[in-house]
């Protein structure tokens, strides 16, 4: 049985139970107060950094508006994300186009709307930016190796080798753009703080060589996301991330710290959400099988995609949990007719032996990469709904 006190306060749990009692499942309940606290804490631990919330983590309007009110800026990846954020009255000055994969006409659109800053990691994209957004600020994303220590790696697909970043920033200047900085993402749910050390060292090298060889003085480091949310696998506290990262920055940049940007997604909203699902069926594959299969009304296609490869292991509470109650291992699966729709089979959750059809399962820490990461209507199942608890 999960000790839910590690994830949610008694008070918040009571409020949540009351709020969710009559809601149809599956659904996600997001606690806005948790996000407010997370933002305030992050800002306190990184007072020297500007925070650009990665909208993709949870694009609910109330969340964006709350963060805007608290002073956040936003990392935007697409036109619809941009439209949504602008429609909420947020100034384009507070936005950055962080996707390195974009169409020329989308660059033009971002430019027209007044977004000042663009990420890139390739020559062709840079040429498009030079054409569509002359003079814009450019930051180049460098590759960092993070496939083994991040639970949801973002390696390989994004970023370029530092040698190429060097060339791109020279090219940016030559094309009339403003070479502005370096970005990296050490991988989402990154449990090895040392990954920031390597990335910052590479960044330092680029700052120095570009200034010495080319007279290009960069002014910004975008350290991406990667800070953890609270799942079953232990992580260091955010305070330890902050202490260590500050030390890496001081070691490499001393007092001459450039502008620092953070793009948190998961760590800001992850623990704000609780996904409520209902048990559709409990069964065994033969009369003597030790494991029960527990089928739920939520699965990989309506909210829990990050269970792919069992990458993210959410803490799960059931409506039958009792301290000291008898439990046994289960295999958890979703409702669709796709055999990929199994949530956890290798990793065995233990659940009450009297778990029955109609009981509820509560997936804690499901505020990030769930609601917006669901299919439209695979097998006819509707996208999972999010409710905001103020
Ligand atoms: C997804 C993403 C983030 C957020 O990462 P988290 O690990 O959720 O904090 C930040 N920056 C970029 C460019 C991203 O694509």
UniProtKB/TrEMBL annotation:
| Annotated Orn/DAP/Arg decarboxylase 2 N-terminal domain residues | 33-269
Q: What is its EC number?
A: 4.1.1.17
Q: Identify the SUPFAM superfamilies for this entry.
A: Alanine racemase C-terminal domain-like (SSF50621), PLP-binding barrel (SSF51419)
- Which is a GO BP term held by this UniProt record? putrescine biosynthetic process from arginine, via ornithine
Name the catalysed reactions. L-ornithine + H(+) = putrescine + CO2
Active site residues per record: 337
Pathway note: Amine and polyamine biosynthesis; putrescine biosynthesis via L-ornithine pathway; putrescine from L-ornithine: step 1/1
Give the GO cellular component terms, alphabetically: cytoplasm
- Pfam hit, one: Orn_Arg_deC_N
Sites of N6-(pyridoxal phosphate)lysine modification:
56
PANTHER family the record matches: ARGININE/DIAMINOPIMELATE/ORNITHINE DECARBOXYLASE, ORNITHINE DECARBOXYLASE 1-RELATED
Homology family = Belongs to the Orn/Lys/Arg decarboxylase class-II family.
Q: What name does the UniProt record give this protein?
A: ornithine decarboxylase
């Amino acid at each position: 049985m999960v000790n839910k006190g590690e994830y949610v306060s008694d008070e918040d749990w009571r409020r949540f139970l009351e709020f969710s009692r009559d809601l149809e499942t599956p659904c996600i309940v997001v606690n806005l107060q948790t996000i407010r606290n997370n933002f305030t804490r992050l800002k306190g631990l990184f007072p020297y950094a500007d925070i650009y919330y990665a909208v993709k983590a949870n694009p609910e309007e109330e969340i964006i508006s709350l963060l805007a009110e608290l002073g956040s800026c936003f990392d935007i990846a697409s036109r619809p994300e941009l439209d949504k954020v602008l429609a909420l009255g947020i100034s384009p000055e507070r936005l950055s186009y962080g996707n390195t994969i974009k169409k020329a006409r989308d660059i033009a659109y971002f430019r027209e709307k007044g977004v000042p800053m663009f990420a890139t990691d390739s020559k062709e994209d840079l040429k498009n930016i030079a054409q569509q957004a002359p003079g814009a600020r450019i930051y180049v994303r460098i590759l960092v190796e993070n496939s083994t220590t991040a639970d949801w790696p973002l390696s390989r697909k994004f970023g370029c080798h530092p040698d190429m970043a060097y060339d791109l920033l020279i090219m940016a200047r030559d094309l009339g753009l403003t070479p502005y900085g370096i970005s990296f993402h050490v991988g989402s749910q990154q449990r090895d703080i040392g990954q920031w050390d390597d990335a910052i060292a590479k960044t330092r090298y680029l700052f120095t060589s570009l200034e010495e060889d080319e007279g290009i003085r960069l002014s910004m480091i975008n350290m991406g996301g990667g800070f953890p949310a609270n799942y079953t696998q232990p992580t260091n506290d955010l305070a330890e991330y902050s202490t260590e990262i500050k030390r890496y920055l001081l070691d490499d940049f001393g007092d001459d710290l450039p502008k620092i940007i953070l793009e948190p997604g998961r760590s800001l909203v992850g623990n704000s959400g609780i996904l409520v699902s209902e048990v559709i069926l409990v069964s065994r594959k033969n009369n003597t099988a030790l494991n029960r299969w527990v089928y739920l009304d939520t699965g990989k296609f309506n909210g829990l995609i990050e269970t792919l490869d069992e990458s993210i292991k959410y803490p799960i509470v059931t409506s039958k949990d009792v301290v000291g109650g008898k439990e046994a291992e289960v295999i958890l699966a979703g409702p669709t007719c796709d055999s990929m729709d199994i949530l956890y089979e290798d990793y065995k959750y233990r659940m009450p032996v009297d778990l029955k059809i109609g009981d509820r399962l509560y997936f804690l820490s499901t505020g990030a990469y769930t609601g917006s990461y669901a299919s439209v209507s695979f097998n006819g199942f509707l996208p999972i709904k999010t409710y905001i608890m103020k």
